[in-house]
Design goal:
The chain is about 80% helix and about 0% strand. It is mainly alpha-helical. The relative contact order is 0.04.
């Protein structure tokens, strides 16, 4: 510490070097407490945001699983549609063949 005069002491963290050390310390205590409170508030906010981020990651994972299930279901439905279209075409062709056979049968008689 460096003395500026007989009644004042220079404190490296005080804003005004001409203030007595005791006055600078008193203001610094208030400022320190204020900064500590702000730090605790910010730490709580960071913790809250971290927890929120974890929840969002979990929700994202669940949504990705749902998307995969939906895509698998869509693929299964597309396969079923293809099978049903083939079966419908086969039945349609059988009906057309039967119509032709009936026409031939009716023409002969």
């Amino acid at each position: 510490m460096k003395k500026n005069s007989a009644t004042t002491t220079y404190h490296p963290y005080s804003h005004n070097p001409l203030l007595p050390f005791s006055a600078a310390g008193h203001g610094s205590d208030d400022l320190l407490h204020e900064l500590v409170e702000k730090m605790h508030i910010l730490q709580e906010q960071v913790q809250h945001e971290h927890e929120h981020a974890e929840l969002l990651e979990q929700h994202e994972k669940e949504l990705k699983e749902q998307v995969i299930e939906i895509q698998e279901h869509e693929h299964q439905m597309a396969d079923d549609l293809t099978k049903e279209a083939k079966a419908r075409k086969k039945l349609h062709n059988q009906i057309e063949d039967m119509k032709g056979a009936i026409r031939v049968f009716c023409r002969i008689r």
